[in-house]
Design goal:
By secondary structure, the chain is mainly α. The chain is built from nine helices and two strands; from the N terminus they run αααααααββαα. InterPro entries: AraC-like_sf, DUF1465.
Length: 168
């Protein structure tokens, strides 16, 4: 985990994620609030529900990013970050922006929802990759297979079928 949080990839996700949080908050508190008053009933209900879900997902994503940064900067013990309460995952399907295009919701709002869904999904995948079985850095089955293949190649006893059979 510390290696990832110190990477350029993390820095890019952090900067992009926090910018999206700010952009979304500015929209929902400004033009989005004004526009929501003029929406037809069905679009207004969808807007209200999606706004809450959008806000919730972005707050979860921002909390995860800040937690990673805190560990990286030494402000939070690494062991604390392993706790299940800090894990992030998708409970249900993402909001389907494509189905809502042309149904009365403004494109600006739908673009924010789409960007937030992409960010949330990316962070869920990062969390799953970093915290396998609740342990940071524990090798996944794929990583273990790759390590076994490397070791076998170095020993000169490269037998991918033998390694593959043990992995199942």
């Amino acid at each position: 985990m510390p290696e990832f949080a110190a990477s350029r990839v993390f820095e890019r996700v952090f900067v992009d994620g926090m910018a999206l949080v700010e952009e979304t908050a500015a929209y929902l508190d400004g033009p989005g609030r004004d526009m929501a008053r003029t929406l037809p009933r069905e679009a207004g209900l969808t807007y209200a529900a999606w706004s809450m879900e959008l806000t919730s997902k972005l707050m979860q994503a921002a909390s995860w990013l800040v937690m990673q940064k805190a560990v990286r900067d030494g402000d939070m013990p690494r062991e604390d970050a392993l706790a299940n309460k800090y894990r992030i995952s998708r409970d249900g399907p993402p909001l389907n922006v494509a189905d809502q295009r042309g149904q009365g919701l403004p494109d600006t709002f739908l673009n924010l929802v789409e960007n937030a869904e992409n960010l949330f999904g990316r962070i869920c995948r990062l969390d799953a990759a970093i915290y396998v079985d609740g342990h940071s850095g524990e090798a996944s089955p794929v990583k273990r297979q790759i390590e076994e293949l490397k070791a076998a190649a170095e020993d000169g006893a490269f037998d991918p079928l033998r390694i593959w059979g043990r992995a199942r």
